[in-house]
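Hello,

Our lab assistant flagged a job as stuck in the queue for most of the afternoon. It eventually completed. Since we weren't sure the result was trustworthy after the delay, we are filing this so someone can double-check. Below is the sequence as submitted and the structure that was eventually returned. Let us know if re-running is recommended.
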Amino acid sequence: MRRRKFLSLLGGAAAAWPLAARAQQPGGMRRIGVLMNLSEEDPEAQQLMATFRQGLAQLGWIDGRNLHIDYRWSAGDIEQIHKYAAELVALAPDVILAYGGSVVGPLQRVTRTVPIVFVEVIDPVGAGFVTSLARPGGNATGFSLFEFGISGKWLELLKQISPGISKAVVIRQPTSPGGGGQFGAIQAVAPSFGVEITPVGLRDASELERAVAVAHDAKGGLIVTVSPLATVHRDLIVSLAARYRVPAVYPLRYFAASGGLISYGPDRLEPFRRAPGYVDRIFKGEKPADLAVQAPTKYELVINLKTAKALGFELPPALLARADEVIE
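-- returned structure --
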């Protein structure tokens, strides 16, 4: 009887050992949901995700080893964003990486408990995603894109590259969080530059040509604000500006890299390098409510000199000297 009891206990211990061993592994297998408002085929999106995974790996979180990542790509489609938000929350991830304000809102409507780390969100306090930047107070924190005041810089740059213009068309997406604030900042500085501002709402790609044509007919310039649709259709916007020979200023580097004349905005890779640190801290027990929302630390001025020459623009030497990058 003693021998049978001993073997029984030994067998029970052996059966329980794998579970105990797994429980003793640091952190165990963790799960991250990623909701992007870009297309999966977008090279920019793949670079952002590669940067994020590299940052996680440097902290010891390896996809497929002690980490599983579920991706959803909405390509700026609002209906898809709502659908994918529900799908990701249903998977019970430890944390969700949310790209853009148009993604954070739908996620918070589905969950107020799953931690959310957001990137590239304009005015998260005004949008209601957090209570304050220093003490977010809910289930979301992350990295803001920029303050609205930077939008006025785009008009200043437009006047520098084309001093004679007196009119400018501002492309914005009315449904995009932060769209109104960006336009308001541009409108506020317009009188000091002697420029009349015309907003053109962007609801789908079919409206883009009309917006650029308006700028061309007015012999004016073009300013593109940050929005999901502008991001998804950036190649089309850049090609239309070239076709109509309209001087245009863009908010982020990838527009200039795609052939746009000039861009000024934060380093887009920076928040994807920094976000893994917040994910790691949440994995280790910290709460988003206690992690301050962080602002960009680096802004970059990028000039596409090849495009400037093709359009016949002679850019001021002082502007070229200030550029962080000149694409030739």
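-- support follow-up --
The delay was a queue issue, not a problem with the job. The result is valid. Confidence is low (pLDDT under 50) at residues 1-27. The chain is about 45% helix and 20% strand.
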